[in-house]
Amino acid sequence: MANFYAHRADFEELVWRWREHPPVSDGKGIGYLFPRENAQQMKRAGISRINESIPFWYPDPYSIQTAQKRYDMAARKNDPVYGFDVLHKYREAVIKPEHEIDRYTKSRLIRANNDVRLSMVWKDFVHMPEVPRIENGWLLNPPSVASSKIAPDDQYHEKENVYVQQKRRRVLSSLNTIPEDWKVNECVYRQLEPQWFLQMCNGR
Fold first, then answer.
1. Most buried residue among 73, 90, 120, 174 by CB atoms closer than 10 A?
2. 132: buried, middle or exposed (CB in 10 Å: 19+, 13-18, 0-12)?
3. For residue 118, what are the CA distances in angstroms to 96, 121, 162, 204?
4. Average pLDDT of the residues in 174-199
5. What is the rounded distance in angstroms from the CA atom of residue 51 to the CA atom of residue 46?
6. Coil, helix or strand at residue 152
7. pLDDT band at residue 191, thresholds of 50, 70 and 90?
C-alpha cells in the first residue's frame, strides 16, 4: 500500500494507457507491446504487468438496460469492438506488483473435504472502470441477464421480461490475516479509493 500511494500518479496513468491501448501485436500476443513501451514507468512504480479480469463494467453498470446490452453483445464475439472491450476498456485491471512471488505470494496449508492441500495466497491491486456498490461488507458485481432462472437468488424483472443474477465479493477492513471461512479460489478485497482495491486470493 505504501508503494501504491508513493506512486499513485504512475498507477493512474499506466491504467489509463492500458485501457486505451489498441489491440495490436508483434506476433507474440495481443497487447504484448504495452509492457515494452511502458517498461521504465512500470519499473519505477513497482509494477510487473497489468492483466484484464471479469466482470464487465459498462457505464451505468447496475441498470437492467446495461445488463441487456452486455447480454446482446455476447452474441457477437467476433465483433472487433467487442473484442477490444473484453481485453481492456470495460474490464477490471489487475496490477501485478514487481517481485510478486517473493514479496506478495505465500504458501499455506488448507483443509478441504477432509483433505489437506497446499494453497497459494497472493495480493494484487485492482482498478475498476466504474465505482462499485459496497453494501454490508459485500462488493456487488454488475447484474447479468440469464435466459431463465438458474439460481434461487435470481430476480425476475417483469418490465424487461428477464431474469437477473448478481454475484458479490467480500470486502474487509484489513488483509493482514487469513479471513474466516475463506473458500478455495476466493478473492477478498480491501477498498483503497472508490475505484482502487487491494485483492488477496486463495488459489491452488
1. 90
2. buried
3. 22, 10, 42, 7
4. 93
5. 15
6. coil
7. very high
